């Protein structure tokens, strides 16, 4: 994780003091709700169906064990003993009281986490690959750049009142785990011919009512120029982004209406005027930030330790290992994904007790570090392979050795109508029912990698457009209906899913998913052909026939 | 609405002249962009008093650039505090076009935007609420560190750290 220096600490403490004053003025009536709304949104506070919701940023998905313990403390002290990890490397608490918010914020600030700009029309939490720094084949650690961008975006004096929210994601691996193509700005780290670090810059991706896959605006921007280039994009957007219609205010619409070439030309013209200005950074700045990141001193360990060979005889351990343990850049080590998707549970929730226990586990087995991914799962990034059997037992003891990572029951879902004031339909109970249908691990394993994404309304917080199976809740005559898409994906080959037919009622969604999965099992060319590849090969027709033949 | 300039509430020396009213013989005047653009040279060379222009947030400031040296006040507009276009206009006027006259924030100007506005280059504030104007001096002290460099002269974190590195290496 990045360790705050005195400047970072001072800024966060000043923010807490400011928010305390704002809450005081709201409670005294000095501020109207309309005036306060923007201020609380700038600090991650929403008013939901039942209570205030508090969203905290986990920049680039990296947490220390102490930070996770402090989140557990907030869950216990100010909320109802649990938190919800979101698709944007945030955690949300759903039952927080306004008068206690400044205290919660101050408690978090003590360990260097905060909630600035986790909502509102500003630059949101900068996200990255949750395996950054440990993934094999990664070009370099993208979190250094994500941190530079975090600082650049925090309390920006020009871009804190944008036409609409603005999300930046960054990856440095061939396999894109940060879903950069569905962000307002996506950055793909690469090296030029001289071996210098830079970025392919993509712009205008986003889901919601009008989904777009981001387009490349510039194939290479040198790392030294990345802040000025991002500033140029934001400056064009701040001036010309639409403010007359909230549904057309995202940068994707501006890019779409102008066309990428014209938009790129506007940005280029602006950028040329500022690229050699105060935002230019040098290697010293980059190294300064890098030096504040924690990198473990790995031991030299065997690739296949005896402990692992012995544990392989236990089928339950093997079932977990095969789905949860991933290759690490250092021999003898592994990345372990901790699924937050228990059968019948709400996706992405963790209790305060689980968070505390996982923090202890991270101290013992992962150099005190935890990662948060957009799939709403956690990961332990530095595990010795020889520790895997012990780690598995420790996770199992707290209900977190769920062997379903990347399988059909590893569902991404928004909070939906159970919590959210924007939702048209419930998401969580749909997810819970689907996990019950596929509770049999052997069946789920037979199906293989399959991502289901559920959103309770068109705002698409559950990223349904890019789910292998996407489920979107809509309202028809006061009843919950669900549109089903298939064939979407969020990775480097990002593509939007295709609608298979008319929406189906709440009670039939799980049946439809089962029908689609059965059709896939019958249609796939061979067991290694993933669901999403079968859809690509055959199109939606055979799935549509199967689903609607009897409906 | 109280006007804050130089950290204090002061009387506004500029008189707002509507588009169809006759120009006063002397004194500082504030006119709309439409009136200004209808005869900018005549207005700008008026010898009997300062000129101020209200510039809307949906028009490029480029159109103002030829006259900047003869304009004493530019009033930029926040129709709602949610509409942040004037922050960009302010920075462009100050940092790119070198405008040194008064840059006034008008419209829905509230306490919690003061720091952003100062950093963008505003130096005068047509504050909506008396209580916010009274709290100006205290509010602008809320922050002592800043991540982004702008043209306001405050040291950004990037450069603070750079200086720190240099002083450390000099001490070796």
Q: How many distinct helices of chain A?
A: 18
SSE order of chain B:
EEEEHHEEHEHEHHH
Per DSSP, what share of the residues of chain B sits in E-state strands of 2 or more residues? 15-25%
How far apart are the termini of chain B? 56 Å
Q: Indicate the structural class of chain A.
A: alpha+beta
Structure summary, number of beta strands of chain B = 8
Shape of chain A: globular
Round the mean pLDDT of chain A to the nearest integer and report it. Answer: 96
Question: What's the multimeric state?
Answer: heterodimer
Q: Tell me how many strands of chain A there are.
A: 21
Put simply, the count of helices of chain B is 7
Gyration radius of chain B, to the nearest Å?
18 Å
Structural overview:
The complex is a heterodimer of chains A (551) and B (172). Chain A is of the alpha+beta class and 551 residues long. Helix content of chain A is 36%, strand content 18%. In chain A, strands 16, 17, 18, 19, 20 and 21 form a six-stranded mixed sheet that branches. In chain A, a hairpin with a 5-residue loop joins strand 11 and strand 12. The longest helix of chain A is centred in the first third of the chain and has 22 residues, at 6-27. The termini of chain A are far apart. In chain A, 56% of the residues are buried. With 172 residues, chain B is an alpha/beta fold. Chain B has seven helices and eight strands, in the order ββββααββαβαβααα. Chain B has an eight-stranded mixed sheet with strand order 2-1-8-7-6-5-4-3. In chain B, helix 4 links the parallel strand 7 (102-107) and strand 8 (124-126). The radius of gyration of chain B is 18 Å and the shape is globular. The mean pLDDT of chain B is 93. The interface between A and B is large, with 37 and 34 residues.
Annotation keywords:
heterodimer, A: 551 residues, alpha+beta, 6-stranded mixed β-sheet, 5-stranded antiparallel β-sheet, 18% strand, globular, B: 172 residues, alpha/beta, 19% strand
